[in-house]
Structures are given as structure tokens and as C-alpha cells.
UniProtKB/TrEMBL annotation:
<dbReference type="InterPro" id="IPR036770">
    <property type="entry name" value="Ankyrin_rpt-contain_sf"/>
</dbReference>
<feature type="compositionally biased region" description="Polar residues">
    <location>
        <begin position="31"/>
        <end position="40"/>
    </location>
</feature>
<dbReference type="InterPro" id="IPR051637">
    <property type="entry name" value="Ank_repeat_dom-contain_49"/>
</dbReference>
<dbReference type="Pfam" id="PF12796">
    <property type="entry name" value="Ank_2"/>
</dbReference>
<feature type="compositionally biased region" description="Acidic residues">
    <location>
        <begin position="43"/>
        <end position="76"/>
    </location>
</feature>
<feature type="repeat" description="ANK">
    <location>
        <begin position="125"/>
        <end position="157"/>
    </location>
</feature>
<feature type="repeat" description="ANK">
    <location>
        <begin position="191"/>
        <end position="223"/>
    </location>
</feature>
<dbReference type="InterPro" id="IPR002110">
    <property type="entry name" value="Ankyrin_rpt"/>
</dbReference>
<protein>
    <submittedName>
        <fullName>Putative ankyrin repeat-containing domain-containing protein</fullName>
    </submittedName>
</protein>
<feature type="compositionally biased region" description="Polar residues">
    <location>
        <begin position="77"/>
        <end position="89"/>
    </location>
</feature>
<keyword id="KW-0677">Repeat</keyword>
<keyword id="KW-0040">ANK repeat</keyword>
<feature type="repeat" description="ANK">
    <location>
        <begin position="224"/>
        <end position="256"/>
    </location>
</feature>
<feature type="repeat" description="ANK">
    <location>
        <begin position="158"/>
        <end position="190"/>
    </location>
</feature>
<dbReference type="Pfam" id="PF13637">
    <property type="entry name" value="Ank_4"/>
</dbReference>
<feature type="region of interest" description="Disordered">
    <location>
        <begin position="30"/>
        <end position="89"/>
    </location>
</feature>
Amino acid sequence: MTSHPILQEKTCKFSALGSKSHTKVCAVDPYQSSSTTHLQNWEDPDGSDSESEEDVEDGEENNLDFESDWEEETDAPETSNNVEKLSTSQIEEDLIKEVEQLLTPEERAILQQNEAPDLDKISTAKWNPLHTLALAGQIKFMDNLLANGYDIDTVDKDGQTALHKAVLGKKEAVISHLLRKGAKPHLQDLDGATPLHYAVQVSAMQTVKLLIKSKVDVNIADNEGWTPLHVAMQSRNRDIAKVLLVNGADKTRRTKDGKTPLDLALCYGKEFKAYDLAKLLKLVPANNYF
């Protein structure tokens, strides 16, 4: 049979789901643009469409498999946590058994008598367990003591609290934790120094700001009449001195021997830092609250 004169044969390739390829000769009108080429609907020899039901079913099965895998993966962390808890519990049990075998009968008796912490037996006037834990940064064990009724503001032989110690040790996380737990930030030790005095002394800027935010008195004086601003002049810390001044520190306060903060700044002699501190103090009006 002779082909129609205006029709040409063209080989067309069709791709179906599942990477199956089919080739068919299609009739193309050469006078039409290639973009408007009409392709006949392709059917497999068995009469099914190119996207076979088999392929669709396979895809659905694959999707279900994927979802199942995903669900298993999301359950994995919980399973892991359970295993970890079991492992930790087993380790603790093994440790207890091992240590009890190592202890003498007398030592085991001491352990039995102290199922709860006996703080009187592990404390002295100098060595306070809460203070030691604060300096060591052991927040969890601090909380254990507090949960057993330990006074958060208990003092040592120098009249210092755990907050004093944490400030001296520059333990910012412990300081924040103690304040959240209700530690009093304005308490003075036997020398009259507050945590703010010590924060200025060790140049702990963030602690200074935190204590001021806790409404401490920036003009409180120790037994010698030194305010935190006096300490800032001695430590030559301009930034902290400025923070104190901005928050109401009185630059006219005098120590017991009559020295103002400016006097202390000038006692360092003719050098840049002394001039820098003097300028700061001279330019800030007395009792000025920014």
C-alpha cells in the first residue's frame, strides 16, 4: 500500500513508568510545526496503558516500605534511650555489688547508717560541702543538697555564702543557678564585702550586670568603707566602673580613711590608665542616674 503523499514516517519513543521503553512509527504532518506534532495514544500489545497497573502497585508497595522504614527510624531514639537507661541501671547495680564486697563489715555499717547524706559529718567551719560543690561547678549535686533541706545561704568561718564562693571562682553558670534558686545577693561576709564587691575584684563583667539586675545596692560599703566603685578603681577596670556609674554608683563616697574613687585612680600616678579613669569620673555628674 502506498503512503499518503503528505504524511511522513517518524520513529517515536515512549517511556513508561518502570523504565520501560516502546518504539512506534507515528504519522506526522510535515506542514505542521514540530511543537504541534500529534502522537497516537500508545498501548501495550496486551491492551494495557503504558503506566501498567503492575508498576503502580510496585510503586505503592515501595512507598509503604519507605514509610515503614521511616517509622522504625523515628522509634529508634526512644529505643536507644531505654537501652541506655537499662545499661546505666545495670552499671550502678554492678558497682554497688562490687564495692560492698570490697568494704569491711565496719565500713558497710557506716554506709548503712548514712543512706541519706549526713552533712554534719562532711562539714567544718572552713570546708562547707555546698561551697565546695559551687566552686567545683557541680550543680546537680548542689541541687541534691538543697533538696535535702540544706540552707542555700549557709556561711563558712569567713561569713561567705556559696554565692560569694561562686563569684570568686567566676562560675557564671553556678551564680545564675544559685540566684534562680533564691540565694540572697546582698549578704555581706565578715569583712562586709558582698558578692558585687568580689565580682568587681575579679573583673567578672557579666556577673556584675547579673547582680545589678538582681537589685543589689551598688553603693554598699564594706567594713573599711569601700564601695564596689572603689574596688573598680583599684582593679583599674574602666568598663565595670562605667557600668556601676550608669547604674547609680556614687563617686563622692569616701572610705574610712577619707579616699574617694577618684583619689584611688590618681594614686597610680601619671600614666594613661590613671588619666582614663580620672576622665570617666570627672565627666560623670555626682549621683547621676542615666
